[in-house]
Specification:
Number of domains: 1
Number of helices: 11
Helix content: 25-40%
Number of strands: 9
CATH topology: Rossmann fold
Shape: globular
Largest sheet: 9 strands, mixed
Mean pLDDT: 97
Strand order of the largest sheet: 1-2-3-5-4-6-7-8-9
Distance between the termini: 37 Å
Order of helices and strands: HHEEEEHEHEHEHHHHEHEH
Oligomer: single chain
Low-confidence stretches: none
């Protein structure tokens, strides 16, 4: 795919007007208060992963609705003192995988919590273990239109809440420094990291790579690729439902969350990305911290890559960013 979106100069200046609902903050404060009302400390079960220098815990914590959410917590075996922690969210269709797939950050001295994504974990990778017990009205296959008729029912209200509760949970674990928490992820995981950064004001650092779930309307207008294509397909069948769909998604747009972020944000974007178009990423990046008095931010650009972005090349910049801020 060639570079198909705005020019580099236009992307760097791109600050679209989005249809943010007036009760956005109320919607999310009530959502999180309800979820936190279920209480519950995380439950850790030590796993023998055959590793001598790292320890692994199978974590279960209460997410949206108090539903049990799984994760892996990987830490250095000989850590001294409370550790900084990075909470990672997974890409679309994937799950938390297997413990030995999550070694890099712990080997660098961090605690690393990888959150399973409810109802996913069968599209790629080594699988997931967290069901989504909530049903849905008519929806296009996938997750983008589950509960699309009402923001209270939408799938990503649950997943984003799970992401916030993952931060709440890991802060309760012995040996974790609750004041040094970062969030991160790629694609869907990057979009969740953006959302959590806007909802948890004392997250210190955020690393969204080629983030999904940002500026939905723009994405649908300029790409046919899925998962955004699920929205297009739904609207092609449910003619005349545009207002309902866009209203629901306005409560879930990464641009709105980005505006509220206080964490230091390290983004990445690929200029040939037809899955998460560059302008949707820049819409969130350029809005980062704008309602919070500003926040440190930088973006790494891959001009000749598609949705794979930087892949393994992201590890070194991520470590440098975490070392600087945690």
């Amino acid at each position: 795919m060639a570079q198909f979106d705005l020019s580099r100069a236009e992307l760097e200046a791109y600050q679209p007007s989005i249809d943010e609902p007036t009760d956005f903050d109320t919607f999310w404060s009530e959502t999180l208060a309800e979820a936190r009302g279920y209480g519950g400390a995380p439950v850790l079960e030590r796993v023998d992963a055959g590793l001598t220098e790292l320890v692994v815990d199978d974590v279960t914590f209460p997410g949206f609705g108090g539903h049990p959410i799984k994760g892996w917590l990987v830490r250095p075996a000989r850590a001294q003192g409370p550790l900084p922690v990075a909470v990672e969210y997974v890409g679309y269709g994937g799950g938390r995988g297997l413990p030995h797939e999550q070694l890099g950050l712990a080997a660098a001295g961090y605690a690393h919590l990888v959150m399973d994504t409810r109802g996913q974990g069968a599209g790629w990778g080594s699988g997931g273990h967290t069901p989504d017990p909530v049903g849905s009205g008519p929806a296009t296959p996938g997750f983008m239109t589950r509960g699309i008729a009402d923001p209270h029912d939408h799938y990503y209200r649950r997943v984003i809440t799970d992401g916030v509760r993952a931060v709440d949970a890991v802060r309760q674990v012995d040996g974790i420094d609750p004041g040094r928490v970062a969030v991160m992820g790629t694609s869907q995981g990057g979009g969740i990291a953006v959302a959590v950064s806007g909802l948890v004001p004392d997250v210190v650092a955020s690393v969204p790579n080629v983030p999904f779930l940002c500026h939905y309307r723009r994405a649908v207008e300029i790409t046919d690729a899925f998962p955004y294509g699920e929205i297009t397909q739904y609207l092609s069948v449910h003619r005349g439902q545009e207002d309902v769909v866009w209203r629901t998604l306005s409560y879930l747009d990464g641009v709105s969350f980005a505006r509220r972020a206080r964490a230091a944000g390290l983004f990445s974007v690929a200029l040939m990305d037809g899955v998460c178009p560059p302008s949707t990423v820049y819409a969130a990046y350029n809005a980062w911290g704008s309602l919070a008095g500003g926040a440190e931010r930088t973006i790494d650009v891959y001009p000749y890559n598609q949705h794979e972005g930087g892949q393994a090349y992201r590890f070194a910049p991520t470590l440098a960013w975490l070392a600087k801020h945690l």
